[in-house]
Amino acid sequence: MAPRIYIEHLESQLSRWLLAEYWSSYRIAGDLLTITGIEIPGIRSTSKRFHELVDPSEAIILDPQADRELAPEDLEGIDAIVIGGILGAHPPMGRTKKLLSDRFPQAIKRNIGKQQFSIDGSVYIALEIIRGRRLREIPITLGITIRRRIGSIEHEIELPYAYPLVGGKPLISEELLALLTGGGGYELEFRRPKHE
Amino acid sequence: MSSYATISPQVSVVFADVKIPATIVKALKGLVDETLITIDSSGFKLSAMDPARVSMMILEIPVSAFLELRVERELSIGVSMQNLELTLEGAKKTDKYVLTSDGEFVEIIVEGLPTRRFKFRSIEIPKEVPNIDVKFDVDAIVGLDPFVVAIKDIASIGSYALFKAETEDLLEIYEASNKRGAARLSRSAGSLIDLRIDRPSSCSYEVSYIEKALSLAKLASQLQLSFSSDAPIRMVFPLVMGGTATFYLAPQVS
Predict the structure, then answer these.
(1) In angstroms, what separates the C-alpha of A52 from chain B's closest C-alpha?
(2) Cβ A156–B117 below 8 Å, yes or no?
């Protein structure tokens, strides 16, 4: 049986940004996804923590600081892939290690790259690996710039995360883009893809 | 500077967080439409007049107050308040605020997660600041908190505040039309730190302007007030991070 994907909510608040990422994750993985540590109406979620639902020794925590990359064969006998529900920092603060990996030494740790991924991007990659794809087969981009005009002002928003490319475009939800830009037109610029 | 600018900056200043620019913008918002910013090797100077030209704000901040200040050549740039306000929308307290210019364009980088970048043209603003050559008959240093409370009280009941000083131990502030809402700032109550009077004076000023300028109280430790009968009032805020903000307001026309 395929492992389930868990997002362990680790922020003290549920910001609109985080909520947009959780909804996007749900749209990607459907009911294969459970968000733990917080109840969100409309999404499969629970106030319980992931270790109350699955045996941590049968779970893989996705942590950029893990030594080894996640591969399809790692998933044999695994019940859960756990992703930190964390808003990143720039430069990264290693909060996944602090808040998840170090607290569950019995869990297996794997990375999907050494960069900070968006939460929904991590869910997408986890799902692709469950489906048998290898990490190197999944193209990613590092950093997105959202460009728009506000009257005579040129406005740019820089997101320093890594994003998987789906159909040649970075996977970022319209909901999050609307939140960041306040709606209206914009252009997305992204850097040279890796793994292509 | 950790964030790169897309222009080739001739000047750049880095505020450690957005508190200072946000407070300055709050004080100027609704008061002025545009502001002139001059950056040279000694620091940062901002001057602005309201469209009716009854008030003027001059803010001078020394180099030491900034995380970084770089000057290739001295520049004066004109910035609309609307643009400045926009740069602060959605900014988090911990974000760094970087202002750069090449003379033609102004680029503001709000460095956080995400980093936001705003680029717009500098606008033409006359560089000459009116010279306010007034001999003030009253100079006072007041505690900020009691002064803010006094002004708020007066603003709730009227449009003009009457400042009156006749003896060196009492500064009185009333609502001008019917003398209600009297606030007495005295040495004995600790609300008046110092008062010097060359000539007993009283004068009224539009309280909404004073109230706006008092947004700067957040950045200041005390307030120096100077006025004379039938003359402008001058409010000087010595800023905690160094430098001063000086606000001038014309008297009520009787």
Answers:
(1) 32
(2) yes
Task: Tell whether the model's pLDDT for residue A4 goes beyond 90.
Answer: yes
From A90, A153, A159, residue closest to B118, measured CB to CB: A153
Cβ–Cβ gap A154/B83 under 8 Å: no
Under an 8 A CB cutoff, do B117 and A88 touch?
A: no
Query: A60 vs chain B: nearest CA distance in angstroms?
Result: 28
The domain segmentation of chain A, as residue ranges, is 4-136, 140-190
pTM of the entire structure? 0.84
Give me the CATH code for the A4-136 domain, please: 3.40.1280.30
Spell out the domain ranges in chain B: 11-121, 138-249
DSSP secondary structure of chain B? --SPPSS--SEEEEESSSHHHHHHHHHHTTT-SEEEEEEETTEEEEEEE-TTSSEEEEEEEEGGGSSEEEESS-EEEEEEHHHHHHHHTT--TT-EEEEEE-SSEEEEEEESSSEEEEEEEPPP---PPP------SEEEEE-HHHHHHHHHHHHHH-SEEEEEEEETTEEEEEETTT--S-EEEETTTTSEEEEEESS-EEEEEEHHHHHHHGGGGGGBS-EEEEE-TTS-EEEEEEBTTSSEEEEEEPPPP-
Question: What class, spelled out in words, does domain B11-121 have in CATH?
Answer: alpha beta
pLDDT in tens, B37-96: 999 999 999 999 999 999 999 999 999 999 999 999 999 999 999 999 999 998 998 899
Express each pLDDT in A114-140 by its tens digit. 999 999 999 999 999 999 999 999 999
